[in-house]
Amino acid sequence: MDPPALQKLVPFGATIWVHRPLALMLLGLAYRTGVPWNESGYANPEFDKIVTEAEGTLDMTKRHALMSKLEEIMHEDGPIVQPLFKNQITFYDKNVLGAMVHPTQYVFCNQLALKRA
Fold first, then answer.
1. CA 19 – CA 98 distance, rounded (Å)
2. Distance of CA 3 to CAs 32, 48, 81, Å?
3. How high is the pLDDT of residue 1?
4. Which residues pair with 96 in a beta bridge?
5. Which residue from 50, 68, 84, 100 has the fewest beta carbons nearer than 10 Å?
6. Residue 64: partners with Cβ closer than 8 Å, 6 or more residues away
7. Burial profile 40-73: b = 16 or more Cβ within 10 angstroms, e = fewer
8. Residue among 35, 32, 55 nearest 43 (CA)
9. For residue range 3-61, what is the model confidence (pLDDT) as tens digits?
10. The dihedral sign for the CA sequence 10, 29, 23, 85
11. Cβ-count burial of 6 within 10 angstroms (0-12 exposed, 13-18 middle, 19+ buried)?
C-alpha cells in the first residue's frame, strides 16, 4: 500500500515501536518515503537522503551531526507525536548476579551467575 492511500485509510494511528539498538533502525523503517511501515505517510527527500547517508557513516562524530539534522527536520515537519515512553521492568532472584533490565527485554545469560552459598 502506498503512503497516500494509507493516509486516507488511517487519518490518525497509534503504533508501538519497541526498542531498537540504533535510532537509524527505526528512522529508516518508519519514516523513509515509501517504506511499508511508514504508517504516517511521511515523505521528505532531504530526510531520506540524510537517513541513507547516516546509515553508511561509521565515523561517530559525522553520524552525530547527521542525526542532529534528522532531529531538526523531524522537529520542523512534525510527522509524529511521541506521547509516552514505556517503562521496562523485570525481576530476578537475589542469588542471580549480573541481572539487569535491558531496553529490548533480552536476557543476556552469558552475563549471569549464581551466588555461591
1. 21
2. 10, 15, 18
3. 44
4. 114
5. 84
6. none
7. bbbbbeebbebbeebeebeeeeebeebbeebeeb
8. 32
9. 454 445 566 777 777 767 777 888 998 899 999 888 888 899 999 999 999 999 999 99
10. positive
11. middle
